[in-house]
Amino acid sequence: MAKKKVASSTFEYVEPIGDRVLVRKDEPKRETRGGIALPDAAEIPTITGRIVTISAAVENDEELPLRQYDKILFHPKNAIPVDLEHDNQLFVVPVEDIVAVFRRNAPEE
């Protein structure tokens, strides 16, 4: 029997398709603003993150104010985890699940 040659490939890049972005989720909070340390069981769920990559559809849509490296607040229900890194903090998030973008300055009109 001939052995099949299996190519081992490691993915290094994920490109979201459609109206989606790739987000690196922020670390969960381990203490309150007042400095009180929280036990692991009481972790506050984090639904903020930074956009790593945006799809071509989002990039070309002038109505969507999303850019690479934006900090966003998103609803995690439809976020799809991407098993690309050991800490698994990458998620593909549909644009309709992004509820806010954090900005330092108000947009100019």
Automatic annotation (TrEMBL):
> Can you name the source organism?
Aporhodopirellula aestuarii
Keyword Chaperone annotated: yes
Report the family membership.
Belongs to the GroES chaperonin family.
What is the protein name stated in its UniProt record?
A: 10 kDa chaperonin
Q: Which UniProt keywords apply?
A: Chaperone
Q: How does it assemble?
A: Heptamer of 7 subunits arranged in a ring.
Record's function text:
Together with the chaperonin GroEL, plays an essential role in assisting protein folding. The GroEL-GroES system forms a nano-cage that allows encapsulation of the non-native substrate proteins and provides a physical environment optimized to promote and accelerate protein folding. GroES binds to the apical surface of the GroEL ring, thereby capping the opening of the GroEL channel.
Q: Which Gene3D superfamilies match?
A: GroES chaperonin
Key word Repeat present: no
Q: Which SUPFAM superfamilies match?
A: GroES-like (SSF50129)
